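Exercise 7.
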Amino acid sequence: MNSVVMDRAGARVLLQGNEAIARGALEGGVRFCAGYPGNPSSEIIETLAKAAKELPIYVEWSVNEKVALEAATAASFSGLRAIACMKQNGVNVASDFLTNLTLSGTKGGMVLVSCDDPGGISSTNEEDARLFAVLADIPLLEPSTPQEALEMTRWAFELSEHISNVVMLRSVSRLSHTRADVVFGPMQETSSRPYFDPSVPFHTFPVLAKHEARHQKLEKARSLFEESHFNSYKGPEAPELLVIASGCAWNYVVEAVETMGLEERVGVLKLGTVWPLPVKFLERHLRTAPKVLFAEDVDPFVENHVKAYASQLGSQLGIKSFYGRGSGHLTPYGELTPGRIMELFSEILHLPMRRDGLSEQLSRAIEGKVPPREFGFCPGCPHRGSYYAIKTALAWDRRRGFVSGDIGCYTMGIWPTGFTQVKSVHAMGSGLGLACGYGKLERFGFDQPVITVVGDSTFYHAGIPALVNAKFNGSDILLVILDNSATAMTGFQPHPGTGVTAMGHEADPVDMVELCRSLGIEVVVADPYEMKKTARILYELMKKDGQRVMVLKRKCALVQAKEGGFPYLMRVDQELCLGEACGCGRYCTRIFRCPGLIWDKEQGRAKIDDVICVGCGICSEICPQGAILKEAR
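Solution. The predicted structure, written as tokens, is:
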């Protein structure tokens, strides 16, 4: 049995933070679950999809985050408890519907989970999605541990039904992907039958009245937050320094206090109900300390709102010194760390900074023993072949063409692994949207060819509207869809083109080739492993005008490896390889850079690393001497 679905209250299980959120949803009686894959949120829906094999719940990977929230909301309108999960970028996509939904309100418990990515570990930004809670006037919960993630998620459904509105729960990368023991609560019955009552419509009109009601709902949440056990204080009655911490930053503060032995000098106020602020609870503690430090990721969200509230109290609180991201004592970007908190403690409390030299010792211990690593495509990745073909076609064209990129594994085309071909990357689908603009600049003298690349999952998510826009407005656009048959960057989740759903059910795939052709657009399908052939096709397409689509279809190398592997055994003929005398400047290992193709310094020749090479065979096309050979397995 899947441990997450055990109906055994009191069981202690090691869970990832995202798994704990999923368990909390199950304990909260969730029936409908939707999301779009994106690190660091993906495991929530994946865990729920596995649970659907044993529990009466529905789980889907939606085509994008807006649709995920809309689909889950339909369940809520029908009386079922529902959850929508996404990363911070996805909240942007869903925000148009979110800010309308919170006017109409909800029926069944409706929880929106945003997993933010401080430091931009796997994202194009490190946006703080908590701001949407203020924008939409909805309660915001921020857990610090997997146990809290479970309990807050479970309670969020009750809170949502209590105020008849969406509740937002915010995780971050470190919490979503950490593991800890979690104690289970009981599972709720999920036998309710969905019914939409036509006498109680859900819409935003009259807007003014609905906006007023939204604020009243928020005040109901605030009254509960004032006594919530998710908020706590630990420390002396009158601390020299009060630290107000939320989310994962609370763990760093506790570690710093214990490490420096400051339990009698520093008080730690843990804030789990982040918005609306429990102002009475905060006021009681703000009165006790002359100095206040805020610890949170990423923006000074709590800091700014607490300082605004403190300013309203004026002389009642007395003069306070505030420290945090907003004050400039912490950088307004990147993740917090225990070390940075300790440095700030030393600065504020006038203590010598204790350094144990551990990092210096570690650096000396590993010096020269860890090989340098860079971002790179996997051995056999079709994107390497795609970018090689694009690079070749652009070089033949000689008009200083470039690539407008998008989000996925292929984003690494900005680095040497993709021959630095990608020159712009922003939001999902934006590469194609930008190309629509470039495609209308000819009247101003713009004559550079632009190739825009998009992955298969991203094409379904956000590329289709831009392609329709190109057709409607007559943009000169060359779209290359890098179809590797998976949402590979986030864990191989299915999408509309794969023919399988999140719950493992077979589905009719949406044929992207026929979809594009239905718009009256020329479509060519090619294999990125056939780099020379692909480059020639691209070169010919670049000469044409209008909308053209090229689908480079080849499964992700990791998927191919699971499904039977690759056809070739590769070797370098040491007699044919001229090494440094070739005149190519070691093009094979210095430029092409497949990790399975390496330079043997002792022999002065290229060779195949048999451990890493998968046998895709594409490197055989790049050697001017024909020294790289492929043989059938």
